Amino acid sequence: MPSETLWIADENSKPLLQPGFHFEGDLLTNRWDIAELAQGKVGRSFYNDFHLEELDRRYRRIVYSVSKEKAVVHHIINQAPRFLGEGGELVLLGEKQSGIKSYAAKVAERLDGGKNLQKYGNDYCSVNRVEHPQGGTPIGEEDYPQLRSLPELGGLYSKPGLFGWNKIDKGSALLAQQLTTELPKEGAQVIDLGCGYGYLSARLASLGSFHFTAIDNNAAALLACKKNFQTQGIKGVVLPSDAGAELESGAADLVLCNPPFHQGFQVEGDLTDRFLQQSARLLKITGTALFVVNEFIPLLKKGPRYFSEVQLITKEKGFCVYRLRP
């Protein structure tokens, strides 16, 4: 029965949630945009960092199009027996490049059964039944739910489930180096657009007193960023948002942004445009946006669609930092 099915929807599931789509079962996602799109289209919609226990029930079937982040996939495979019960099915979907063949073998190991993988054009489907309530041996997932303070991040907290969760992104580090010469006035309203675990907010907060609004689509990012705001004493709020669309226009003195350019396993060409458009909307007329992008992103071409001033500040190791003003 569809109502006894849990659909775990990661970034690859977004194209399905079009007008007219309907699914009677439950949907669980770690992405705010998907949770919002799912409203009214599914039986129940849940937004969290894949905490299946919050759903408070078992299912006959879990359907999951595998995520880009390996730790997420391992976490869901490990949790499946507990929320399926004996005789329940875990269905994994994915293209060859997603690692689906390897994950199918891990599912067989975890559910203590045989590998069952079928090919349908460019896609693969793995269907495995839970033979024993406890399943087989859990596979490695790096203690997925646990936030941890990492020396390599200067003591900031992070966790698996975030892209580059245990390192400082080179682009963000390059942008952070420019902050001493790009400081807003004391008390300025700062939006950290696509905040991740909050690295840029933490770096700027160490240079003065500002009020931050940190936003991200990813539930794991929000957990980590909230923890860092608390432990670092950073003034502000951490909110779920799809590229800032939910925020008030014209309120920010400064926008900081290292925009993503991948949506799942694909390069999505309009992601940078969405972040540029929202930044222009969010800024005061006297405000400034600081963007860092890979050098192949044509920000000098894209930026003038939304800003009157687009200036390259620095270029290093394949990344470019731009100053943009309305």
TrEMBL record:
Keywords recorded for this protein, A-Z: Cytoplasm, Methyltransferase, rRNA processing, S-adenosyl-L-methionine, Transferase
Protein name: Methyltransferase
InterPro entries linked to this entry: DNA_methylase_N6_adenine_CS, Mtase_sm_N, RsmC/RlmG, SAM-dependent_MTases_sf, Small_mtfrase_dom
Residues in Methyltransferase small N-terminal domain copies: 28-110
GO annotation terms (biological process): methylation
UniProt xrefs under Pfam families: MTS, MTS_N
Residue ranges constituting the Methyltransferase small domain according to the UniProt record: 156-323
GO molecular function, one term: methyltransferase activity
CDD domains: AdoMet_MTases
Domain of life: Bacteria
PANTHER family reported in the protein's UniProt record: RIBOSOMAL RNA SMALL SUBUNIT METHYLTRANSFERASE C
Originating species: Microbulbifer variabilis
Record keyword Transferase present: yes
